[in-house]
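Shipment paperwork, digital attachment
Item: protein structure file
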Amino acid sequence: MDFTLAVLGLAGAIALFLWGTHMAQTGVQRALGPRLRQILGQTLSNRTKAFFAGIGLTLLLQSSTATGLMAASFTANGMVALLPAMAVMLGANVGTALIVQVLAFDVSAAAPVLVLVGYLMFRRTHNALVHDLGRALIGLGLMLLALHQMLGILTGVEDAVAFRAAIGIVAAVPALGFVLAALAAWGVHSSVAVVLLVISLASRGALPLDVAFISVLGANLGTAINPLLEAGAATPEARRLPLGNLANRIAGVALTLAFVGPLANWSAGLLSPAHAVAAFHLGFNLLFALLTLPLLTPFGRLLDRLLPAQPAADPAAPLYLDRAARETPLVALGGAAREALRLADVLEQMLHGAHDALVKNDRKLIEETRDRDDVLDGLNTAIKKYLTSIDAEGLNEDDQRRLNQILVFAMHIEQAGDVIDRNLLPHVSKRLKRGLIKGDSDAELAELMDRLVLNLRTAASLFMTEDARVARQLAEEKVTFRRAEREAVAAHFDVMRNDRVGQGMQSAIHLDLLRDMKLINSLIIAAAAYPVLDRAGELLPTRLAPAS
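Attachment content:
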């Protein structure tokens, strides 16, 4: 086989393996995603449980990255401590090694069966769970097929001069194998693919066993670099876990390098090269997981000192939009929902500011409140960009619905902030400039402002619970504001008809303020209540009565 074609074929086989991994991962996430996240959340209370949960989830998801992202999201959000999350990462590393251990055996004969069964499940059923599990089986079949292709290509080029020259350079300079494996694992976001390639080379006798072991160490180090790079702009709390995982990898690799030669000589007489490399990979991860687990407490304290919690310098900077999580929709949507709730918090601050400016007649409060609208704009833009960048392949029907729901919530909350900034606060300022300070209607305005705050809190809760009864109660709040506006219109016309001196302008501004509040309330209801009611079939398409 021509060496150039062999390199292209090998690259294609690796790409097929990675795509199969992606299909298996997204299939399991679609089928069992919320349950897996719930299980992980329950096990994070104990480091031993967290360790075994990390192993189990990685075996299911076929990816230590996906497991690590779930743990990192819990840690970054402050929901769990750092130590259990680090235990999950140790378990995820062992889980990855177990995957390699299984795939190191010749199980390629199962590939056609897995693809066939997966295809039938994927295409011949309307059950969402069976459909998604079928996708996962197709992915597993493609992974095995890719491994079979890899071995076939390497067999075809093992006598090629260029191939032997390239492998000879790596064999002569083991450090080069370490660096190349680390770069490859970093580039493809997968240590499994790189380790399996090393196993394939070792099984053909192309790589000496000690060089293969060193390359495996490089792959283990390379796969720990990506999470830290992608968390570079995140909060210190979010960077602790990937930094801790990388530090553990560096320490483990540094200690193991000294024993590579004796280990290679010892295992050569006991196992075949392929199984020796797979066993070394598993032993490395398992041994250092067991050594690190008892040391997590002082290690966690060190990370806390190195990366102390810091308040966000820019209030408009997102806190929960993890770039690395975009390939794991379950985690990404959870982070986006948390960020959307921050929008509601900022809007509540604006409502409190508008209320105080109205009651205390404070121009400074008006300006401070208007500045917060820039925070809303920045967060809303960040959420929209983040959601539109999520890998659509990993979204099932429920995930897509939740994504749209987050977009709708964020959009309406941001629009409510615009109404405060561009309408309500200018009307409050106009009242101050005209000297219309006192009025019998001030108590009503303050009461309605308080009602807006309560409705906003209900909407934020509803955004997470999606309770149809609460949604109906919130939607009925429109009646209160509609009635207040109707009464204010009647009162204003009464003032104008009776030509009460000095009261016409005050009545007009009062009516403007009421209309602004009514619009804000409508946007709050549209943000959270209407999507829930529409899905429950409790929302009419129009308020018009049927034509007679």
